[in-house]
Automatic annotation (TrEMBL):
Domain Asn/Gln amidotransferase per the UniProt entry, residue ranges: 327-474
Family, as annotated: Belongs to the GatB/GatE family. GatB subfamily.
One Pfam short name: GatB_N
Membrane-spanning parts: none
Catalytic activity: L-glutamyl-tRNA(Gln) + L-glutamine + ATP + H2O = L-glutaminyl-tRNA(Gln) + L-glutamate + ADP + phosphate + H(+); L-aspartyl-tRNA(Asn) + L-glutamine + ATP + H2O = L-asparaginyl-tRNA(Asn) + L-glutamate + ADP + phosphate + 2 H(+)
Functional summary from the UniProt entry: Allows the formation of correctly charged Asn-tRNA(Asn) or Gln-tRNA(Gln) through the transamidation of misacylated Asp-tRNA(Asn) or Glu-tRNA(Gln) in organisms which lack either or both of asparaginyl-tRNA or glutaminyl-tRNA synthetases. The reaction takes place in the presence of glutamine and ATP through an activated phospho-Asp-tRNA(Asn) or phospho-Glu-tRNA(Gln).
Protein name: Aspartyl/glutamyl-tRNA(Asn/Gln) amidotransferase subunit B
Subunit: Heterotrimer of A, B and C subunits.
GO molecular function terms noted in the UniProt entry: asparaginyl-tRNA synthase (glutamine-hydrolyzing) activity; ATP binding; glutaminyl-tRNA synthase (glutamine-hydrolyzing) activity; transferase activity
SMART domains, alphabetized: GatB_Yqey (SM00845)
Record key words, sorted: ATP-binding, Ligase, Nucleotide-binding, Protein biosynthesis, Transferase
Listed EC numbers: 6.3.5.-
Any GO BP: translation
Amino acid sequence: MKWEVVIGLEVHVQLNTASKIFSGSSTAFGAEPNTQASVVELAFPGVLPVLNRAVVDKAVRLGLALDATINKKNVFARKNYFYPDLPKGYQISQMDLPIVGPGTLTILVGEEEKVVRVTRAHMEEDAGKSLHEDFQGMTGIDLNRAGTPLLEVVSEPDMRSAEEAVAYARTLHSLVTWLGICDGNMQEGSFRVDANVSVRPFGQAEFGTRREIKNLNSFRFLEQAIKYEIQWQIDTLEDGGHIEQATVLFDPDSGETRMMRSKEDAHDYRYFPDPDLLPVVLSDEDIARVASTMPELPGQMKARFVAEYGVSAYDAALLTTSLAHAGYFEAVARATGQGKLAANWINGELAARLNREGLELAACPIDAARLAGLIMRVADGTLSNKLAKQVFDTLWTDTLGADEVIERDGLKQVSDAGAIEKMVEEAIAANPKAVEEFRAGKEKALNALAGQVMKASKGKANPAQVQDILRQKLA
C-alpha cells in the first residue's frame, strides 16, 4: 500500500456510580425525561458542584490497571461551548492536570500482541441528550444524562488499521467491566468511542490531517466507519484534493461518514480551572486503599493460566477476555484437571456455537459443570472427538449430564481390542487396493481404511486403537 493509516481513539467510559459526579441525582437508565436532573444539572444560579468520591476511586482503579501515572494532584477545568443540552454553557472536565497520566494497554490482533500507549484518562461530566426524531420541526432536551460521571480515555495515535482499533476498544471494554467500574452497555451509551483517523504516505514522519468520527456505540460500526473514512481520505488525496480537519458522523444505514462541523482545537474551548472545585489531592494511602481492592488483572491471570494449566498464550488471551470467560474456564479446568482440553473446547466448539447463536456466555445453556462432565469422558477415552461433539449438541438442548446422554443414546466409545481387531480385519479384506497403496508407501491409504472401520463401528471405535491395530496388521 502507498498510504499508512494512523488512528487514535478517545473512549468515553460511563462510570457505574449510583449518583452523578457533582450531585446526588440518580444515574439510573431509562427514567422519564428530565426526572433525574437536579438544580446542579439545570445550572440554577448559585448552586455549587460537590465531587462524588466514588468517581475518583474508579478513576484510580483504571489508572492502576493501565500501569499508568496517577497524578496525586489533579484539577477540574471548564470546557466552554454552547449546546442546548449543556445548560451551564460549559462542561466540567480536566485538561492540563488529569487524574491519570501515561499508561499502556496490550491488545491482541490475530495472534500478535501489540502495546498501545494511553495518553491520559480524565474525569468529566456527561452532557444531556438532544432528541430530534420525536418532535417535528423541534428538538427535545432530556437532561437525565447530564452530570453522569465519565472517564475519557485517550490513546496515542498508535493504531494502524481498523482491526487494531477494534482490538483496542474491545480490550478496554473488557478491562473496565472486569474492574467493575462500568457496565459496558454500549446500546445505553455506557461505552462510546470517538476515532481520530488520518492517512499519510509511507515513510512520511508528519501526521496527515485527521478527522474525528464521533459517538460510535458498537464495535461493528467502529470498524465500518474507520474503513470507510480511510478509503474516503485516500481517494480524496489521490484525486488531488486536501483533507480538512473536521468532526464527522457515521451513518450505519449508508455506511458512510458525513461532515458535522469543522474540528475545534483545545484553545477554541477556552479551558480554565473551575473556580468552584478545589484541586483533587490524593495521598499514598488513598492510592494504596484502592490498590488493595483490585482484582487479579487479565494480564496476570493470562500468565497464571499458561503456568498453571499449560495452555498456550493465545488460548489464555482468549480465555481472559472477560471475568465470565475466565471463571468458566477455571471451573472446568479445576473439575477435570484437563487445562488444555478445557481451553480447546471453550475456545473452539463452545465459542463457535455461542457466536452462531448470537449468545453471550452468561446465556450459555451448558454450564461449567456439564461441560466438565463431557471433557472427562473425552479424557478417559469413553468418547471420541466425533462422539463428544454429538453429546455436546445434545447437552445444548437438553438438561441431562454427559454420562446420562452417553448411557441413554448408546454412545460409549468401543475400546475392546478384540472387537476393533475384527472390524480391522474385515476392512482389510474388503479393501485390497487401499492395502496395496499403503504398503507401497501411500500414508493416506491408512486413513481410508481407518474410515471404513469407523463407519462399521458407527463412529464408536477408539480412533487411536484403530490406527494402531491397522499398522500392526499391515506391517
